[in-house]
């Protein structure tokens, strides 16, 4: 039974639910058994959903943050015989990653989020759009968005559950399942090779681009605009080491939208919880920022910021200094006249709660684009491609386009003209990448991609309660196990690293 056949049977319940959620005044009732996905306007409803991927576990491996909701009191958790998922990831425990995590990670919703979009949004549209009632222009737009969206979420799944793409082994190394619209839903999915998966992703993106049907500005930023197929393609081509192609795709995306919002415009003077003057971000949603080609809107509240992450931000970074955290919101609570002592006391309070004296995100008002793609991604890709060709000034110019709108004027110093070597250029790129990608899926994805590049790979260390933990480029920690529910229900799916 293909998806198309299944949809012709089941669409009545699916679209009835979507219609009720999307428009309370929808009262037309078709005859029982009628396919309610028969119009392009019906298919459009499938796209009206919130797209988001949970990234905190990836951020923990990468060294960005710890999930404050799930980690518990860390010193006590470290003493347990069977470690929880957050502690396995925090301590980079290779043995537990191989033996415990594959049988305890039933709560990993990232995989299901990716394949629900593919199976419940993209494939129904691609199966039914041509025969649906409606203008051809509308059909083309729906298909273009579905192709690009399927590519995006297939790519996102591969970044978490497969090894980093290596051209030398891509034709043999397994990746994630490919689920086309022609898939027979009665047959369990199978894994495809890295080469096959990336070929399918690029094919979908080329199909979206060839249709040339997406609007320059989408109806909202939770939908795909004309730049998105090119933006996704730029990321994908970076992953398979096609840097010329990636630079071309990034440039094409920027032709369709190149705004970088100045974060200084979103700062406001306020008072802390305890009456100390502070400057913080005004509550803002990614849906209102023009720099976002595609946005998910999610809070980053109660994430424990690792010291290694704080150190990677440049001095004067708005994201570091003005994001609402316990240090910012709690100022004045102990020693209003001495912010240094005050900060130490706040960190001690965090140590009482979590067992580590770290800063904690504490923003209940703003949301952030943790999954989507921004114009700045394209400039970062152009910068990396230019560095790889030895064009250092060009690369630093791209980075400065971002930095001037992310760093306070008192701290901003241009890189162009001051950075002249490839080593220093890569270091500058990494800091700018961290400033843009921290608190999103993209920091993990990018740092993982670098693990097989000689000029970029590095061994990461973190200090925790007197112990040093190490993450090597070759570590299996960069690969997550598939959710246990997926493997238990489908014997065709195997984890992409050695488990016990």
From TrEMBL:
Domain of life: Bacteria
Name of the protein described by the UniProt record: RagB/SusD family nutrient uptake outer membrane protein
UniProt cross-references to InterPro entries, sorted A to Z: SusD-like_N, TPR-like_helical_dom_sf
Annotated SUPFAM superfamilies: TPR-like
PROSITE patterns associated with the record: PROKAR_LIPOPROTEIN
Domain called SusD-like N-terminal: residue spans: 104-224
Species for this entry: Duncaniella freteri
Pfam families, sorted: SusD-like_3 (PF14322)
């Amino acid at each position: 039974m293909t998806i198309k056949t299944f949809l012709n049977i089941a669409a009545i319940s699916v679209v009835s639910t979507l219609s009720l959620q999307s428009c309370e005044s929808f009262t037309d009732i078709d005859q029982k058994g009628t396919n309610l996905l028969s119009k392009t306007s019906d298919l459009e409803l499938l796209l009206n959903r919130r797209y988001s991927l949970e990234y905190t576990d990836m951020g923990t491996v990468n060294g960005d943050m710890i999930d404050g909701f799930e980690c518990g009191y860390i010193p006590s958790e470290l003493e347990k015989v069977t470690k929880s998922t957050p502690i396995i990831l925090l301590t980079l425990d290779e043995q537990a990653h191989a033996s415990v995590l594959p049988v305890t990670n039933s709560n990993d919703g990232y995989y299901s989020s990716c394949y629900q979009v593919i199976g419940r949004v993209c494939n129904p549209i691609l199966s039914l759009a041509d025969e649906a009632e409606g203008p051809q222009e509308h059909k083309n737009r729906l298909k273009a968005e579905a192709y690009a969206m399927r590519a995006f979420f297939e790519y996102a799944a591969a970044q978490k559950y497969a090894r980093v793409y290596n051209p030398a082994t891509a034709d043999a190394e397994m990746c994630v399942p490919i689920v086309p619209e022609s898939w027979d839903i009665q047959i369990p999915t199978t894994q495809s090779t890295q080469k096959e998966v990336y070929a399918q992703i690029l094919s979908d993106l080329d199909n979206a681009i060839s249709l040339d049907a997406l609007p320059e500005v989408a109806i909202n930023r939770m939908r795909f605009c004309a730049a998105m197929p090119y933006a996704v393609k730029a990321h994908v081509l970076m992953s398979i080491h096609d840097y010329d192609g990636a630079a071309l795709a990034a440039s094409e995306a920027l032709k369709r939208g190149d705004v970088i919002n100045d974060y200084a415009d979103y700062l406001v003077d306020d008072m802390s919880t305890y009456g100390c003057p502070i400057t913080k971000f005004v509550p803002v949603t990614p849906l209102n920022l023009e720099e976002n080609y595609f946005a998910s809107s999610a809070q980053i509240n109660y994430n424990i910021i690792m010291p290694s992450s704080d150190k990677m931000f440049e001095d004067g970074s708005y994201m570091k200094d003005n994001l609402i955290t316990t240090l910012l919101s709690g100022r004045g609570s102990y020693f209003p006249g001495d912010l240094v002592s005050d900060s130490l006391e706040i960190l001690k309070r965090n140590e009482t709660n979590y067992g580590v004296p770290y800063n904690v995100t504490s923003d209940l008002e703003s949301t952030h684009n943790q999954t989507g793609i921004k114009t700045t991604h394209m400039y970062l890709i152009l910068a990396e491609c230019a560095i790889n060709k030895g064009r250092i000034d060009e690369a630093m110019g791209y980075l400065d386009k971002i930095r001037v709108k992310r760093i306070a004027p008192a701290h901003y110093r241009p890189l162009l003209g001051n950075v002249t070597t490839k080593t220093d250029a890569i270091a500058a790129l990494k800091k700018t990448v961290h400033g843009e990608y921290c608190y999103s899926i993209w920091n993990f994805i990018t740092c993982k991609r670098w693990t097989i590049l000689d000029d970029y790979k590095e061994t990461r260390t973190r200090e925790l309660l007197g112990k040093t933990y190490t993450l090597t480029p070759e570590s299996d920690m960069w690969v997550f196990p598939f959710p246990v529910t997926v493997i238990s229900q489908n014997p065709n799916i195997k984890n992409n690293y050695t488990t016990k």
